[in-house]
Amino acid sequence: MQRRDLLKAASAAAAAMAVRPLAARADDVPGDASGDAPIQADVVVVGGGTAGTVAAIQAARAGAKTVLIERGSQLGGTMTVGGVAFPGLFHAWGKQVIAGIGWELVTQTVKLDGGTLPDFKKKSRRHWEQQVLINPHLYAVLAEEACIAAGVSIRYYEFPLSVERKADGWMVESVGPGVRKRIACRQLVDCTGGGDVVGMLKLERLREDETQPGSMLFKVGDSFRAGRERLQAVYVHGADSSTSASRTRATIAGRQAMLKQIRKGLARKRLVQVQPEAAFRESYRIRGETVITHDDYVSGRKFDDAVCYAFYPVDLHTRSGVKPKPLADGVVPTVPLRALVPKGSRNILAAGRCVSSDRLANSGLRVQASCMAMGQAAGAAAALAAKRKTTPLDVPFDDLTRLLRDHDAIVPERPRK
Ligand SMILES: Cc1cc2nc3c(=O)[nH]c(=O)nc-3n(C[C@H](O)[C@H](O)[C@H](O)COP(=O)(O)OP(=O)(O)OC[C@H]3O[C@@H](n4cnc5c(N)ncnc54)[C@H](O)[C@@H]3O)c2cc1C
After folding, report:
1. What single-letter DSSP state applies at residue 357?
2. Does an H or E element contain 110, and which?
3. How far is ligand 1, taken at its centre, from the CA of residue 36, in Å?
4. Cβ(269)–Cβ(319) under 8 Å?
5. What is the pTM of this model?
6. Whose CA is nearest to atom 31 of ligand 1?
7. Average pLDDT, stretch 409-414?
8. Given ligand 1 and candidates 196, 362, 368, which is best to mutate, with the most ligand atoms within 8 Å of its CB?
9. Residue 249 buriedness (CB in 10 A; 0-12 / 13-18 / 19+)
10. Would you say the CB of residue 42 lies under 6 angstroms from ligand 1?
11. Of 9, 56, 78, 315, which is most buried by a Cβ count within 10 Å?
């Protein structure tokens, strides 16, 4: 064959390949050979943010076939996409009170990034001194690696379109660009931040008329050294994470507020970093089987079904700013399992900032270390409930605490009767 004929033949072959339909189906994800049949899972976690990533890893490490649905393209949620990359608080009054999978991911990130941890022995009332500065880019990748190693099936760019109750669990219809997939599971864990799945199921949620502002995080200057410094922030009043429309409004408002600041005072400095979307402090909270009150929080009530500690000042942001109110010496609040279980529900838990609590208690409970600890507890309860074909509140509590401790979580001792 002449060289010219060879080139002609090669380009004809390339053209034929270009129009040949793809062998892989558009809704295939790695490891999913289910075709049109529903994927069978034990646990579905919705939302791969601060709490959800940890919930999914815990459920999978406990042996549950776990699917994680995340509407974005990376894990970490507010910590990474929001740019709030200073998780706290793992320590209270000089002692570690939250550990487990969240702590593992945070310390791995700091180590690989060559960063340093604060001096936790210092019994400081300045809570920000005890927050860990992490490189959010690295955290997202390490969290993803840990999910994959645990066997979690991650579905990015998807969100649940419908969730239907079944006799033995749920049928979730998950959609994304080019994908419409049914997933049958025994247990659901809602880690969407604002309890989106709980809302879809018409289970009760709590919400204030005026919510705390969100923030748009950005940096002007010569450079931004992720993991070594914090971003700047402008408040976004009325920021609401409930729908794509309200998220759009908040993100545009955040960018405009940032631009105004740049135009006003920072003109000689370059914009070097802007987060892709606004970060949200408050929207819906679930109404759980119990509601943690401000009094429970500031008195450090030891719930008899406490699954983790939480530690942070009462930290309510308003139009006039924030004045954190530190907890009294020695006080360490706890989070009961019943605050992670939507009232009147079966086979569903929720974890993260949507924890069942009144507004002031929530302003302290919503922070990252506490969200991670709640996520781990919810993942463990979901895995055990799926295994035993029961609902989370019927899992023997000692089995739950044993599983959590086996996975390095710190669980409060049960108060003596
Ligand atoms: C500006 C700001 C400053 C803060 N400062 C601190 C601080 O200094 N220290 C601290 O520890 N905490 C701080 N917090 C609080 C803390 O960051 C958040 O409350 C916490 O990260 C929330 O965790 P989460 O898991 O509930 O939600 P997120 O981390 O927001 O995760 C929710 C995830 O769910 C996904 N999702 C949402 N809806 C759907 C859906 N329908 N389908 C699929 N996926 C969905 C989202 O994409 C996201 O990944 C701050 C928060 C803000 C906004």
Report:
1. B
2. helix 100-112
3. 33
4. no
5. 0.93
6. 49
7. 96
8. 368
9. middle
10. no
11. 56
